[in-house]
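Async update (no meeting this week)

Hi team, since we skipped the sync, here's where things stand on the single-chain job. The sequence we agreed to prioritize is pasted below, unchanged from the tracker. I ran it this morning and attached the output directly underneath so nobody has to dig for it. Comments welcome in thread, and please keep replies under the output.
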Amino acid sequence: MPDADPDLDLVRALQGGNDSALNELMTRHQNALLGLIYRHVGDATLAQEILQETFVRAYFGISSFKPRAKFVAWLFSIAVNLCRDYSRSKRGWQAKRTVSWDEITEASGETPSSQSQGTPPNAALEQREALEALDAAVAQLPHDLKTALILFAIDGHSQEECAELLAISPKAVETRVYRARRLLEKSVRGIL
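Output:
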């Protein structure tokens, strides 16, 4: 039998009408979901909106959840589908995606004062441009490859965890991450 789902009792409580169980589920999973969503859409405000919509859809769809897979995998699939829907929407395609240096340093946990004081301004500018080019290349990856890459290489999940979250095999995760990295290499070869 696969590992027991640590969320199952809360899911059953929520299915039984105990709305406060949703608060605990949100507390458990909001940070991981927000990180995944932000890496997909690149906008903090939009990521918050998609996170909220993820939990709204989970709340209203909880009766359809069947414990064949873990709740967190079901929740991640809702978030990933919302990100895909956003990227397909007219608004998603027309939006200019820009990443500020502040967003990059916040995401990495650095602050301007924590950065090396000895870094020449030109090197910092080149590093920022390289990060922005890489970010743009990741944004252009096909949705399934981008999701696998984010979960595995950026969020640090194992292949088995990614497979469970994406409802695919670990070998499929490996293949998607490999293909994403190859596409990234081609995209940024002339830039970096």
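Quick observations from my side:
The chain has two domains: 1-97, 120-192.
Residues 92-101, 107-116 have pLDDT under 50 and may be disordered.
Reply here if anything looks off.
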